[in-house]
From TrEMBL:
<comment type="similarity">
    <text>Belongs to the adaptor complexes medium subunit family. Delta-COP subfamily.</text>
</comment>
<feature type="compositionally biased region" description="Basic and acidic residues">
    <location>
        <begin position="1"/>
        <end position="23"/>
    </location>
</feature>
<dbReference type="GO" id="GO:0006890">
    <property type="term" value="P:retrograde vesicle-mediated transport, Golgi to endoplasmic reticulum"/>
</dbReference>
<dbReference type="GO" id="GO:0051645">
    <property type="term" value="P:Golgi localization"/>
</dbReference>
<protein>
    <recommendedName>
        <fullName>Coatomer subunit delta</fullName>
    </recommendedName>
</protein>
<dbReference type="GO" id="GO:0015031">
    <property type="term" value="P:protein transport"/>
</dbReference>
<keyword id="KW-0931">ER-Golgi transport</keyword>
<keyword id="KW-0813">Transport</keyword>
<feature type="region of interest" description="Disordered">
    <location>
        <begin position="1"/>
        <end position="35"/>
    </location>
</feature>
<dbReference type="GO" id="GO:0030126">
    <property type="term" value="C:COPI vesicle coat"/>
</dbReference>
<comment type="subunit">
    <text>Oligomeric complex that consists of at least the alpha, beta, beta', gamma, delta, epsilon and zeta subunits.</text>
</comment>
<keyword id="KW-0963">Cytoplasm</keyword>
<dbReference type="Pfam" id="PF00928">
    <property type="entry name" value="Adap_comp_sub"/>
</dbReference>
<dbReference type="GO" id="GO:0006888">
    <property type="term" value="P:endoplasmic reticulum to Golgi vesicle-mediated transport"/>
</dbReference>
<comment type="function">
    <text>The coatomer is a cytosolic protein complex that binds to dilysine motifs and reversibly associates with Golgi non-clathrin-coated vesicles, which further mediate biosynthetic protein transport from the ER, via the Golgi up to the trans Golgi network. Coatomer complex is required for budding from Golgi membranes, and is essential for the retrograde Golgi-to-ER transport of dilysine-tagged proteins.</text>
</comment>
<keyword id="KW-0968">Cytoplasmic vesicle</keyword>
<dbReference type="InterPro" id="IPR028565">
    <property type="entry name" value="MHD"/>
</dbReference>
């Protein structure tokens, strides 16, 4: 392709010389030469775009589907490398998307993924999930605006020999928890023995389908009912703002991958003077990310202190919190999976825990 471009450039020079000679002879043949020159210039632009697209592909991998679509359109635009080295993360991602790349917001995906259940690829034919989702909005001055926990247990089977199994449950139900079981399950067995058992084995569970067996809801009225609380205390002064934040673990559980996101005044870099865990300043989003890998009984509280040269108290809200946990809050747990007649335990994979849909200090 480079050879073609080089030869094309030489040919263009020859045509230009011919055009100059023609003009010297009274202007004959000008239209013809101009048309040829214009045509060659267009070809060069196409060749340059194709060459740039080819050289860029080694830096920006494409999925097969995107590559096929791009080639059918003649290569499309090429990503400019080395231009504007101070471009922000958001601008870079937008440029990739505009050129047909299948990319996601790196910051959002890294944080959002921390609040999603992990799907085990090596799970057994009997797969059980017990998940609680937390939604909470808490006032910066103390007190819950709204908060609830939604829980459910689901079953997924891949082999028909297990399609009538029973789940033994452990219920130390928290006050205020409302529970509902699937209509095809035996309510009397549930009430007497805390077992999720089919009314009739003539109506077995379907295969390769997530079947919800029991669900519950608990509305929280006090901050002490939350697994983790935050005290966010910004102080304004003539030199700017100083912000102190303290977390407190409220339950005897372990929280993992805790990320606390604090908004900042625009174009203001914070100066961190104290932190338990680690922090990251995301300039493109004007955010400070406070990360604590694990919070448990050995780290029930921790603080972050930072200052900024400008701004006011409202700039630091809402504060968002995400975390995961293998523990549940409402006291409903899967103890075992057994045969329908209760004779033997059945090998199974159990995934249980808490995820955060939304938890913010406003």
């Amino acid at each position: 392709m480079r050879d073609a471009i080089s030869k094309g450039q030489q040919r263009a020079k020859e045509l230009k010389k011919n055009q100059e000679r023609t003009m010297g002879k009274g202007g004959r043949g000008i239209s013809s030469a101009t048309a040829i020159s214009s045509s060659n210039s267009h070809n060069f632009a196409s060749a340059d775009a194709a060459l740039n697209s080819s050289s860029t592909s080694s830096y920006v991998p494409k999925t097969p589907a995107v590559s096929a679509a791009a080639s059918s359109k003649g290569g499309g635009k090429a990503l400019k490398l080395g231009a504007n080295k101070t471009v922000s993360e958001d601008a870079f991602l937008q440029q990739l998307r505009s050129e047909g790349q299948l990319v996601a917001d790196l910051q959002k995906s890294s944080i959002a993924d921390k609040g999603k259940p992990v799907i085990h690829e090596d799970r057994s034919p009997v797969y059980v999930q017990a998940i609680e989702k937390l939604n909470a909005s808490v006032s910066r001055n103390g007190g819950i605006e709204s908060a609830e926990i939604l829980g459910n247990v689901s079953l997924n089977l891949t082999e028909s020999e297990f399609n009538t199994v029973t789940l033994k449950m452990k219920c130390k139900q928290v006050v205020g928890t409302q529970i509902q079981i699937h209509p095809n399950l035996d309510k009397q067995v549930w009430q007497k023995e805390s077992r999720l058992q089919l009314k009739s084995i003539q109506k077995p569970y379907p295969l390769n389908t997530d079947v919800g067996l029991v669900k519950w809801r608990n509305v929280l009225n006090e901050e002490e009912q939350l697994p983790l609380t935050l005290n966010v205390f910004p102080s304004e002064s003539a030199d700017g703002c100083t912000v102190n934040i303290e977390y407190t673990l409220q339950k005897e559980i372990q929280l993992s991958e805790v990320v606390i996101t604090i908004p900042l005044p625009p174009a203001t870099q914070p100066i961190v003077s104290e932190v338990y865990g680690s922090y990251d300043y995301v300039r493109s989003k004007s955010q400070l990310l406070w990360t604590i890998p694990i919070i448990d009984s050995s780290s029930e509280s921790g603080t972050l202190e930072f200052s900024v040269p400008n701004g006011h108290s409202d700039h630091f809200f809402p504060v968002n919190i995400t975390f995961t946990s293998e523990n549940l809050i409402c006291g409903i747990e899967v103890e075992d999976v057994i045969n329908h007649d209760g004779s033997d335990s059945v090998e199974h994979t159990l995934h249980s825990g808490i995820v955060v849909d939304k938890y913010e200090i406003i």
